[in-house]
Amino acid sequence: MSPDNSKEVQEGKFFAVISYISFFCILSMLLKKENKFALFHAKQGLALFVLEVACFMLSIIPILNWFMQSFGSVLFVLVSLWGVIQALRGKMCRIPLIANIAEKIVL
Protein backbone atom coordinates (compact mmCIF):
# COMPACT_ATOMS: atom_id res chain seq x y z
CA MET A 1 0.00 0.00 0.00
CA SER A 2 1.29 3.45 -0.83
CA PRO A 3 1.76 6.02 1.96
CA ASP A 4 -1.35 7.98 0.87
CA ASN A 5 -3.51 4.88 1.02
CA SER A 6 -2.02 3.90 4.35
CA LYS A 7 -2.86 7.32 5.80
CA GLU A 8 -6.39 7.05 4.41
CA VAL A 9 -6.81 3.60 5.95
CA GLN A 10 -5.58 4.79 9.34
CA GLU A 11 -7.87 7.83 9.29
CA GLY A 12 -10.90 5.77 8.27
CA LYS A 13 -10.29 2.61 10.28
CA PHE A 14 -12.50 3.52 13.27
CA PHE A 15 -15.40 4.46 11.02
CA ALA A 16 -14.88 1.35 8.88
CA VAL A 17 -15.11 -0.83 11.99
CA ILE A 18 -18.27 0.78 13.39
CA SER A 19 -19.91 0.48 9.96
CA TYR A 20 -20.67 -3.16 10.72
CA ILE A 21 -22.45 -2.35 13.98
CA SER A 22 -26.14 -1.85 13.29
CA PHE A 23 -27.07 1.60 11.97
CA PHE A 24 -23.65 3.18 12.68
CA CYS A 25 -22.86 2.75 8.99
CA ILE A 26 -24.93 5.89 8.42
CA LEU A 27 -22.67 7.81 10.79
CA SER A 28 -19.64 6.67 8.80
CA MET A 29 -21.26 7.74 5.55
CA LEU A 30 -22.00 11.19 6.90
CA LEU A 31 -18.72 11.90 8.66
CA LYS A 32 -16.19 10.14 6.41
CA LYS A 33 -17.75 10.29 2.95
CA GLU A 34 -14.45 11.53 1.45
CA ASN A 35 -12.50 8.55 2.85
CA LYS A 36 -12.65 5.69 0.32
CA PHE A 37 -11.71 3.06 2.89
CA ALA A 38 -14.39 4.07 5.40
CA LEU A 39 -16.99 4.57 2.66
CA PHE A 40 -16.30 1.11 1.21
CA HIS A 41 -17.01 -0.51 4.57
CA ALA A 42 -19.93 1.83 5.32
CA LYS A 43 -21.69 0.78 2.10
CA GLN A 44 -21.22 -2.89 2.93
CA GLY A 45 -22.42 -2.20 6.47
CA LEU A 46 -25.53 -0.46 5.14
CA ALA A 47 -26.33 -3.35 2.80
CA LEU A 48 -25.87 -5.77 5.69
CA PHE A 49 -28.08 -3.64 7.97
CA VAL A 50 -30.87 -3.53 5.37
CA LEU A 51 -30.72 -7.32 5.06
CA GLU A 52 -30.83 -7.64 8.86
CA VAL A 53 -33.98 -5.50 8.98
CA ALA A 54 -35.54 -7.61 6.22
CA CYS A 55 -34.67 -10.77 8.16
CA PHE A 56 -36.25 -9.29 11.28
CA MET A 57 -39.40 -8.44 9.34
CA LEU A 58 -39.60 -11.99 7.99
CA SER A 59 -39.21 -13.36 11.51
CA ILE A 60 -42.62 -11.87 12.34
CA ILE A 61 -44.18 -14.58 10.16
CA PRO A 62 -44.85 -17.51 12.55
CA ILE A 63 -43.60 -20.22 10.18
CA LEU A 64 -40.30 -18.43 9.57
CA ASN A 65 -39.83 -17.15 13.12
CA TRP A 66 -37.52 -19.83 14.53
CA PHE A 67 -35.44 -20.16 11.36
CA MET A 68 -34.90 -16.43 10.91
CA GLN A 69 -34.13 -15.79 14.56
CA SER A 70 -31.65 -18.61 14.97
CA PHE A 71 -30.00 -18.98 11.57
CA GLY A 72 -30.33 -15.35 10.49
CA SER A 73 -28.98 -13.91 13.72
CA VAL A 74 -25.93 -16.17 13.75
CA LEU A 75 -25.22 -15.51 10.08
CA PHE A 76 -25.40 -11.72 10.44
CA VAL A 77 -23.22 -11.71 13.56
CA LEU A 78 -20.57 -13.82 11.83
CA VAL A 79 -20.60 -11.70 8.67
CA SER A 80 -20.41 -8.48 10.70
CA LEU A 81 -17.54 -9.88 12.75
CA TRP A 82 -15.69 -10.83 9.57
CA GLY A 83 -16.19 -7.29 8.23
CA VAL A 84 -14.88 -5.78 11.47
CA ILE A 85 -11.79 -8.00 11.35
CA GLN A 86 -11.08 -7.05 7.73
CA ALA A 87 -11.50 -3.35 8.54
CA LEU A 88 -9.14 -3.66 11.51
CA ARG A 89 -6.59 -5.32 9.23
CA GLY A 90 -6.89 -2.38 6.83
CA LYS A 91 -8.28 -4.48 4.00
CA MET A 92 -11.06 -3.64 1.58
CA CYS A 93 -12.38 -7.20 1.37
CA ARG A 94 -15.60 -7.80 -0.52
CA ILE A 95 -18.25 -9.70 1.40
CA PRO A 96 -19.87 -12.14 -1.03
CA LEU A 97 -23.36 -11.02 -2.15
CA ILE A 98 -23.26 -8.02 0.22
CA ALA A 99 -20.60 -6.27 -1.88
CA ASN A 100 -22.75 -6.57 -5.01
CA ILE A 101 -25.56 -4.73 -3.25
CA ALA A 102 -23.16 -2.20 -1.71
CA GLU A 103 -21.69 -1.26 -5.09
CA LYS A 104 -25.11 -0.06 -6.23
CA ILE A 105 -25.35 2.46 -3.39
CA VAL A 106 -24.77 5.96 -4.74
CA LEU A 107 -24.13 8.89 -2.42
Class of secondary structure makeup: mainly alpha
Compute the CA-based radius of gyration. 15 Å
- The number of distinct helices, counting runs of at least 4 residues, comes to 5
Q: From N to C, what is the helix and strand string?
A: HHHHH
Total count of domains: 1
Specify the helix fraction band.
Answer: over 70%
The counted number of beta strands is 0
Gross geometry: elongated
Sheet with the most strands, sense and barrel status: none
Q: What percent strand?
A: under 5%
Name a few traits of the molecule.
single chain; 107 residues; mainly alpha; 5 helices; 74% helix; 0% strand
Short description:
The protein has 107 residues and is an all-alpha fold. The chain has helices at 3-18, 24-31, 36-58, 62-88, 98-102.
Account of the protein in words:
By secondary structure, the protein is mainly α. The protein has one domain. It is built from 5 helices and no strands. α1 packs antiparallel against α4 (62-88), α2 (24-31) packs antiparallel against α3 and α3 runs antiparallel to α4. The model has no long low-confidence stretch (mean pLDDT 90).
How would you summarize the topology of this molecule?
Elements: H1 3-18, H2 24-31, H3 36-58, H4 62-88, H5 98-102
Helix pairs in contact: 1-3, 1-4, 2-3, 3-4
